[in-house]
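As the work plan foresaw, the team has encoded backbone shapes as discrete tokens. One protein thus recorded appears below exactly as we store it.

:::
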Amino acid sequence: MKKRLLSGLLAVLLLIPTLGLFSGCSSQSDLTYDLAGEPATLDPQSANDPYAFTVINEIFEGLTKVQEDGSIGLGVAESYRVSDDQLTYTFTLRDGLHWSNGYSCTANDFVFAFQRLLNPRTKSQTAHNFYCIKNATAVAEGTLEVDQLGVYANSDTELVIELESPNAFLLELLSTAPAMPCNEQFFNETRGEYGLKGAALISNSAYQADRWIVGSYIKLIPNQRYYDQDQIHLNSMVFWLCYSDTPAEGETQSEILTRFYDGDSVAYTCSGKPDEGLFDSSYTLTTHDNTVWGLTFNQRSTDSVKQQILNNQDFRLAIANCFDRSRYQDLLPEYLTVTDTIIPPGVSIDGSSYRDQTGDMTVYGLNSDSAKSHYQAMLNATGVQQVTGLSVLIAENDSVNNEQYFGYLSQVIQRELNLFLTVETVDQSEFDSRLANGNYDLAIVSLEADFDHPISILEDFQTGSAENNTGYSDSTLDSYLDQLYRGSDGEVGLCKLAEQHLLDSGIFLPLYYQTSYLAVDKSVSGVFLNPQNGAVDFRYARF
């Protein structure tokens, strides 16, 4: 999340008297918040950045929605039923739904939205989350037309979603941005500018876009056609767009923090070291622990010798048994917590932390004899006499010094196995590209829960998953995940089996959890980090 500072902020502030904007806490019905970057688009089917998700959370409502306590409840759907085979979901929409421009909001708006999402021409980076829908993969690959997608309307108020296989997490997915409705008539009227400016947006939620001044601010006002007017507590929301053309990340955060302290913004988020002032009694400070960092191994190397080594479980466990985490534990800042398990403590099942429910697990740390034994087993199995030329790919990161921390582990690996791993540090863009293309040997990556359930991380290693950048494939893990998708009994136990299987495979060696922080002025309630996308959510905000 690259943060930029609005270089012309003073010029924008001069416009305040004519715009009727207010400081974050000076009015009891007008709210302001600093976005650390400008949304690339507010088209829910195309958006893929946290700045966009923050705004989309306020102006669109799906069949389901995140409630104030973080749980999933019904949105524009008033009820639903599921077939006995769990493959067909039928939703009944509320009567009399309207968009902010007066158009009716119907089941057909969801049909069009999903067709757009899966249409390869849309190039959505989030479409893969909905490959569970019948024919979705074929539509996304261009081998079937969009009208063959398993989403259709029986009437204006009845929507049917058919699945390829059961997915017990469909209701969570339907609360996320890609599943928001899209009115086809209005979309066509925008002539290719849908979601790119305020005039090319309509809302079916509590607030609607009033103005979007590129490079300055986005202003939302109440949607008078929203079905539940009791949920509207504000006269306006103003999102200041804070960025610049220079990579002054530290200055950006400093200025945003100052504006928060000055009362010009009601909330502040950070994923690095929290400023001491955030612990003041004037603010409510909450933490969000849903990210884990670890070392992973490329399973699709084009180098035949490297492939033999990296795909060998004994090699991966040899490295795992060199993980002397005490070497870097005391160096970690307070927002990083050393770990030997995969699922972070902020991820829950039925409202309780998954970590608190699992009990003991078999974990891997420094064990010299095991490391040497596994390494020799790999040499015997592959016929390789000496392992050379392997490198660890690391992305530049101002908040997490992965290169330094791994350096201490690298020394142990060299001592125990006589194996030298070089480190290659690249910028985030190159890192993402090489990870996606399989152009690496080992890499330090972060896994973040896309929604509040362990499977949102576990499925990153599912065979064929679009999020599976390692190329890892294991039928046992796939079986555990399939049982979870089917809603089988023993949910916590199945997640624990899947996590343990990943640990035993050595495909992901956990290093540390990362904590993000949300500080909110105590004059405001109803502001939280959306567990489905990690963005700040203001839909229930009130003074």
